[in-house]
Specification:
It holds the Pfam family SpaA. The chain is α+β, with helices and mostly antiparallel strands. The protein is built from eleven helices and 40 strands. The chain is elongated. Mean pLDDT is 74; it is low at 1-30, 203-209, 244-264, 400-416, 471-480, 576-580 and 641-677.
């Protein structure tokens, strides 16, 4: 292997102790626990009751080092060799994580071996610092630890049962060959190399964490030197890592016993790591309830996010750039680079709807309460308060396994999403659909920001609400408001109820994001008028949510004109914050309908000959104010003169007489012509 390649691998291995450990969400610094001075070791730090009590660590060696070169304690170059008994599992895990990379580097589609076929761990090491490899690495480690291609079913491994003193006093454990507490199974021997570490810790309460598999490179002891660094990065150090806040698109964990997860999903993407810190882009997202649309009554939205201890959120772009520079990276414009490699984009805390950023963005920030249950203190704005530009997280107060809920600042209802003693920020709007002029149900709302994570990332508490309601189980929170029934009443020209064959069809509309207009969708109902006396002539479409609907009379009542059938549009809207989440029905004005569907498409949404569809405005003629009516007529002389339909008979008579006058005029001219002739 060439010298430059050796250095690349060495750098990759040092990154493995950072990036792979905890799957790119946390890094480590050594605890106060003394490490061995004359043999290779791995130190697992930041042990807590939640992630370590009554659990066992298992170590599976993936590979060893060879051709080691160093200057004192600093590694300058090294090669890595994959253990024969894990080669097949590593190849399969890499293939499952990235089939294209697998075919290019390990085994071609024709079945012929490639460069890394017998040494797949070297492929991982060589790509550790490649842009975007962190997610691939996460998949590989999880697969090896708990997935289809796990190596943990093997019998050759070391095991270490964590003692109470390990997490209560030392907060760390050292894993090395001569540790009497390290049990060796199936011929396992601890040597300098690369290991998969798996914990059997399972969550028994919200305060207990499920740990993720970690791939870690050990230190090296050679030439009477303990080699612990490479380019100022630390070997053999790793924090215990948990799933909280780390799995892509994982619904958030419950924040109190028995409380279901809320609908929001949080994802963390590591952009870069050093031996002590990771630069992470967090995204917090949910979808607008699918039954909401433009023109609804206002809907509210609240997002809460409480970073834990060791997580610093950068809400201001320039402050973020400075922090990024302190990691040894450069920022050109907003492009973050390590050398010539792009690793991500610098940004301030931002909110987007359907991919479009919301500006200006108003966010409230709160400092932790001084005492358990104490009221939080609202801070100023990022412009005025440097503590907000670099917003530092804190651990919540706990008592045993009971989480103490916070008393929030006046007027802020958090409902247990945030716990006492945490710092948190809160984004609120009273008009979700107003955030983006083209927003519609099902659009993704995403809050994103950059954070630097040091030591263990204990996760975040966070919540996402629409109309002050938390939707559950990670699903699209449909029907926040209770669906309603829509009724149209059929009457004759004397305003009496009819029931004799009238048929109405109902169509849903869809929103075209390209044209930014609504379009006629598929038919969702077809009903005949009721023949029951109490509801005679009524057509009732049940269980409708918010949105535009087209109501089309396909058949008039038996014995009535079939050429005057109506078609009109209704809009159902409303907010879940109203009593019982009530939706209401309205008839859009001509101007509103034209804006919503486009002038060329109005005919598909509206055809109301002679105003036979109308909404009773005053309850005259024994009708009910606000109810919707369709008048059926047997001939044009029965068209209403005044009242509900609002069409004067004189207009129709004028048309008839006008036509008669034209005929008479032509006849007169013909007669006159005969005389002249």
């Amino acid at each position: 292997m060439k010298a430059n390649a050796l250095k690349r691998v060495a750098g990759a291995l040092s990154a493995a102790a950072v990036l792979v450990a905890g799957m790119a969400l946390g890094t480590s610094t050594a605890n106060a626990l003394d490490a061995p001075t004359n043999e290779a070791y791995i130190q697992v730090n930041n042990l807590t009751e939640a992630n370590a009590s009554s659990s066992t660590l298992k170590l599976f060696r993936l590979g060893t080092y060879t051709n080691i070169a160093h200057t004192g304690a600093n590694l300058t170059s090294v090669e890595v060799l994959t253990d024969a008994d894990v080669q097949a599992a590593l190849r399969a895990a890499i293939r499952a994580a990235d089939s294209s990379a697998y075919e290019a580097n390990i085994e071609g589609s024709d079945g012929k071996p490639k460069t890394y076929y017998t040494n797949p761990l070297a492929f991982i090491a060589a790509n550790m610092q490649s842009t975007g490899f962190a997610d691939t690495l996460r998949k590989i480690a999880n697969d090896l630890g708990t997935g289809t291609n796990k190596v943990t079913s093997g019998t050759k491994y070391g095991s270490y049962a964590i003692q109470d003193d390990d997490w209560q006093t030392d907060k760390a454990v050292n894993l090395y060959a001569n540790n009497a507490k390290l049990t060796k199974n199936g011929g396992f021997e601890f040597t300098a190399g690369v290991y998969l570490i798996v914990s059997d810790k399972q969550a028994g309460s919200p305060l207990e964490d499920v740990n993720v598999p970690m791939i870690v490179s050990s230190t090296i002891y050679q030439d009477a030197e303990m080699i612990t660094t490479f380019d100022n990065q630390t070997l053999g150090q790793v924090d215990m890592k948990t799933k909280d806040g780390e799995d892509p698109d994982k619904p958030i964990d419950p924040v109190e016993p028995g409380k279901p997860s809320v609908t929001m999903q949080k994802k963390a993407e590591t952009l870069w790591s050093t031996s002590t810190k990771s630069l992470v882009r967090y995204t917090v997202k949910s979808t607008i309830p699918s039954n909401w649309s433009q023109g609804d009554a206002r809907h509210s939205m609240d997002i809460y996010d409480a970073p834990r201890n060791g997580v610093t959120v950068y809400t201001d772009l320039e402050t973020a750039k400075t922090a990024i520079g302190n990691l040894g990276l450069t920022v050109e414009g907003t492009t973050i680079k390590h050398g010539n490699n792009e690793v991500g984009t610098a940004q301030a805390l931002k909110l987007s709807v359907d991919g479009t950023d919301v500006t200006p963005l108003t966010v409230d920030y709160y400092r932790k309460a001084d005492t358990a249950g104490g009221e939080s203190t609202k801070l100023e704005t990022p412009t005025d308060d440097d503590a907000i530009k670099a917003f530092v997280g804190a651990e919540p107060y706990t008592t045993g396994t009971t989480i103490i809920n916070a008393t929030m600042a006046s007027g802020v209802t958090v409902n247990n999403a945030i716990r006492s003693n945490e710092t948190y920020f809160h984004l609120h709007t009273d008009d979700v659909m107003g955030l983006n002029a083209t927003a519609t149900g099902g659009d993704v709302i995403e809050l994103s920001y950059l954070a630097i994570v040091d030591l263990n990332n204990g996760g975040n508490d966070y919540g996402f609400k629409f109309d002050n309601k938390e939707a559950t189980d990670g699903k699209d929170p449909e029907q926040q408001s209770k669906p309603i029934d829509y009724t149209v009443h059929n009457i004759d020209n004397n305003y009496a109820r009819l029931a004799g064959g009238e048929v109405f069809k109902l169509y849903k509309t869809t929103y075209n994001k390209t044209s930014k207009q609504y379009e006629k969708g598929g038919q969702i109902g077809e009903l005949s008028g009721s023949a029951v006396d109490a509801t005679k002539g009524d057509v009732v479409f049940a269980g409708l949510g918010a949105g535009y609907y087209i109501v089309e009379q396909s058949t008039a009542s038996t014995g009535y004109m079939q050429t005057n059938n109506v078609k009109y549009t209704i809009k159902i809207s409303g907010s879940g914050t109203t009593a019982a989440g009530v939706l209401t029905v309205a008839v859009p004005t001509s101007a509103e309908l034209t804006t919503a569907v486009g002038s060329a498409n109005v005919s598909a949404f509206l055809n109301n000959p002679n105003g036979l569809f109308f909404v009773s405005s005053d309850g005259s003629h024994g009708l009910t104010t606000g109810h919707h009516y369709v008048m059926n007529v047997k001939n044009i002389l029965q068209l209403p003169k005044t009242g509900g339909a609002g069409i004067a008979l004189s207009v129709i008579v004028a048309l008839v007489l006008g036509g008669f006058g034209l005929v008479s005029y032509r006849r007169s001219r013909k007669s006159a012509g005969s005389v002249i002739a």
